[in-house]
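Sequence in, structure out. Go.
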Amino acid sequence: SHTLRKEIKFYMKHRLNGFRNMNDVTLETINYALNYLTDNNKNIIFFSDISEIDVAMLFSFLQKDYITQFKKNPSITSIKITIKNCGAVVKYLCSKNRDSSIYSPIPKSNYFSCMKFKNLKKHNKRTDLIPEDVIHKIGIHIEDLVKRHQVMYNIFVNTPLRLKEVIYLDEDCISPSRYEGLSTLRYIPYKILIARRRKNLEDYQELLILTEVADMIQEQIDVTTDLRIQYECPYIFINKEKSSRARISPGRYFVVTMN
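Output:
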């Protein structure tokens, strides 16, 4: 919108102080981020209209769907730069350096600055995405999988969770969110768990997921209730074969099944 462009114009003027750095790609990264946001939320007129969920959806888009001019997904470092640049605009609009001729509302919160990026060196190389044709073929035969594997597959497709993080989801992993069509998924990020504990952070982390995915997970929670009570086990992917003791569904079984 022209109002957003005006806010960006004032920010860039402040940033560059009248000098043009030909290698500065700040404007480019802000523009494609805002194009996505305004295309998906027509209520965004000013930066102050951008909500927490808008930023979360932008992050998901950059991770999964955005294709750069080099015909590939951006690295996590590039995503961080984009989010940081948008956050810098909001910070400017909230600061005493804000131009007095700007009449747009002052943002109450800077949701871009709430996004945290850690261990970038370890995650800078992206894992290859599953080709769309492979996902399509799996989708055709998804009903052939046992129910718990169907649920696990849908979690993998719709979230960034790793195998161990999915297998050890517990009975309290799903809760409502304040956003329509979205629920909260609570899980333990095992890969960075030691680092979190060193910083005195709690073990659990949360993310927003589609309610339809949450409903599948809740169904898995419900169908394993008796088994979990019997074996005093909190994990929702507990499974019991006819002649064996109940146990957590081994990840290798899922991997073999999918292959």
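Check: The longest helix spans residues 76-94. The longest strand covers residues 182-187.
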